Amino acid sequence: MRFPHFLILFLIVGLNIRCHTGEKPQAANSSETKSAVPSVPRSVNACYAEATVLEILPDLNKSDPTDPCASVPCYARIRIDRVINRGMECDNSVHGGAELKVFFSCSLVQTGKALFPGMTASYPGLKKNDKFAASFLTFVRGDKDAITFKVTGYQKTK
């Protein structure tokens, strides 16, 4: 009876050594994968997607003159081109081809110290037909029945 136990132990140790060669597995075309998915800060709760700006909306926050969105556009109508990752709180209305109203907390114009004092991140601004990648958070501002999506940062794509 000792022989089978020794044989089983030998096989386990042999397989374990063979599996731990120190080489890390690499995905096929790993450079293509990295370039295809922009590196924007992501939230585990959000939807991460690529999208196109369809229209810059003229909605301004006139109720708070200190809000940057009182003087520059922060809302846009966008089309989701591709959902890359679905977070736990990702609304089902975020899918390829969906058109959504989105609130950009960093605005749709080029950011700078005059508009956002103390902001370390820098964004180039977006205009109609620009493509970008971002995390979309479900955001309710005012009317709870009117779901809007919030983008806190983005990366322009080609």
Strand and helix map with partners:
Layout: H1 2-19, H2 30-36, E1 47-57, E2 75-86, E3 99-104, E4 131-140, E5 147-151, E6 154-157
Parallel strand pairs: 3-5
Antiparallel strand pairs: 1-2, 1-4, 2-3, 4-5, 4-6
Please, could you describe this protein's structure?
Strand 4 (131-140) and strand 5 (147-151) form a beta hairpin. This protein has a single domain (43-157), classed as Beta Barrel (OB fold (Dihydrolipoamide Acetyltransferase, E2P)). It is built from 2 helices and 6 strands; from the N terminus they run ααββββββ. The model is unreliable at 9-41 (pLDDT under 50). Helix content is 16%, strand content 30%. The radius of gyration is 23 Å and the shape is globular. The chain has helices spanning 2-19, 30-36, and strands at 47-57, 75-86, 99-104, 131-140, 147-151, 154-157. With 158 residues, the chain is of the alpha+beta class. Strands 1-2-3-5-4 form a 5-stranded mixed β-barrel.
Instruction: Tell me the radius of gyration.
Output: 23 Å
Mean pLDDT: 75
Approximately how much helix is present in the residues? 10-25%
Discrete helix count = 2
**Gap from first CA to last CA:** 67 Å
- SSE pattern: HHEEEEEE
Tally the structural domains.
Answer: 1
Question: Beta-strand percentage?
Answer: 25-35%
**CATH topology grouping:** OB fold (Dihydrolipoamide Acetyltransferase, E2P)
Poorly predicted tracts of residues: 9-41
- Structural class estimated from helices and strands: alpha+beta
Strand order of the largest sheet: 1-2-3-5-4
Q: From the 3D coordinates, which CATH architecture would you assign?
A: Beta Barrel
What composes the largest sheet?
5 strands, mixed, barrel
List how many beta strands DSSP finds: 6
CATH class: Mainly Beta
